[in-house]
Write a structure and sequence with these properties.
Number of strands: 3
Radius of gyration: 18 Å
Strand content: under 5%
Helix content: 55-70%
Shape: globular
Strand order of the largest sheet: 1-2-3
C-alpha cells in the first residue's frame, strides 16, 4: 500500500493517492499520512480532519510524543475553521478532555497547548516585546516565548 501511494504521489495523482489511503487507513504509515494531509489540506480541509484526529490520538497513546500537541491542535482547529465547522473542534477538544481526565500529566499539557493556540500574539505587541495576556491572566513575554518568568496580571 505504501509503495502504491508513493507512486501515485510521485505521478502527481494526489486525489488517487488520497482515495487509496482512505480505503485502507491502517496500512498507511504516519509519515505518509502527514504527507497526504499536507497535499490534501489546502483544497479539502474537511477531508483531512478525520485522519489528523487519528494521528493526534495515536500521538496521545505514545508517552514520548506529548510535545506536538500545540502544532497538531492548531492545525486541526484551522482545518475545522476552514471547513466551516468550528463547533466540531470544540466538541473534539471536550471529548478529548473527558477521555483523558484521569491522566493529570496529559491534561496539564493539553491545557497549556490549548492556551497557546487560543491566545495569539498581537503583531504590534509581539514586535516590541510587550507581554500578551492569556485568558487565565498569565502574562507571557511576546518577544521571548521561552522565558520562564511569567507573571500574574491583575
Amino acid at each position: 500500500m505504501r509503495e502504491l501511494i508513493s507512486v501515485l504521489i510521485r505521478g502527481e495523482l494526489p486525489d488517487e493517492a488520497w482515495t487509496t489511503a482512505v480505503a485502507a487507513p491502517g496500512q498507511v504509515p504516519e509519515q505518509q499520512w502527514l504527507e497526504l494531509i499536507g497535499l490534501r489540506e489546502p483544497g479539502h480541509p474537511a477531508d483531512v480532519i478525520g485522519p489528523l484526529r487519528d494521528l493526534i490520538e495515536l500521538g496521545i497513546e505514545r508517552t514520548s510524543d506529548k510535545y506536538r500537541y500545540p502544532k497538531a491542535l492548531k492545525r486541526l482547529r484551522d482545518d475545522y475553521q476552514r471547513a466551516g465547522g468550528e463547533a466540531g473542534f470544540t466538541t473534539y477538544l471536550d471529548e478529548l478532555r473527558k477521555r483523558q481526565r484521569r491522566n493529570a500529566s496529559f491534561m496539564a499539557k493539553l491545557e497549556v497547548a490549548f492556551a497557546q493556540i487560543e491566545a495569539p500574539q498581537h503583531w504590534y505587541s509581539a514586535s516590541i516585546g510587550i507581554p500578551a495576556v492569556s485568558e487565565v491572566g498569565v502574562a507571557t513575554y511576546a518577544h521571548d516565548p521561552d522565558r520562564s518568568d511569567h507573571g500574574v496580571c491583575a
